[in-house]
Amino acid sequence: MKTITFEMKSLLRISLYLTEYPELTSKRKFVEKGIAILRQYTPKILKYLSHQQVLSNLGQFKIRIITEDKKDLRKVRQVFKLWIQKEKSKRIICLIIEAILIPFTAVLAILPGPNFFFYVPALLFYYHLMSFLGLKKVDVDRLNIEILASEI
């Protein structure tokens, strides 16, 4: 089971940051070629899409949460649950914006060359939809969560 790591800065504010996670991969040769191009030219987009893929499969990972305050395990789980709710809300907003944007960008298909103006919002829509559906299925009480104290 692969491990992902979150860093929790404060229990009062819902501030969790995904710090260690696997990079975006695919079993399809064509998609792997696209990932290689992203890795070479736009590593930030690859990092963002990797983050979305991890969120869509959150239940398949061992989750390590590094926090400054390890005293209250129940409270850390509660903050993690609230963070998941916050992430679902962000994905809904992104999905609505992209669903509105995609029909307008499809009109640009008449321009010669690759239609990046359509592909990028469509790709983001797909990954946001997958991460939303994955987060919707997550039950925090059943996740394999390990809570560690930070070394500060």
Give the arrangement of secondary structure elements.
Blueprint: E1 3-10, E2 15-20, H1 29-41, H2 43-56, E3 62-67, H3 73-106, H4 116-137, E4 144-149
Parallel strand pairs: 1-3, 3-4
Antiparallel strand pairs: 1-2
Helix pairs in contact: 1-2, 2-4, 3-4
Can you describe this structure?
It is a single chain. By secondary structure, the chain is of the alpha/beta class. It has one domain (3-149). 55% of the residues lie in helices and 17% in strands. It contains four helices and four strands. A four-stranded mixed beta sheet has the order 2-1-3-4, with helices on one face. Helix 1 packs across helix 2 (43-56), helix 2 (43-56) packs parallel to helix 4 (116-137) and helix 3 (73-106) packs antiparallel against helix 4. The chain is elongated.
Order of helices and strands: EEHHEHHE
Low-pLDDT windows of residues? none
Structure annotation, total helices: 4
Proportion of residues in helical segments:
40-55%
Give the distance, in angstroms, between the N- and C-terminal Cα atoms. Answer: 28 Å
Strand order within the widest sheet? 2-1-3-4
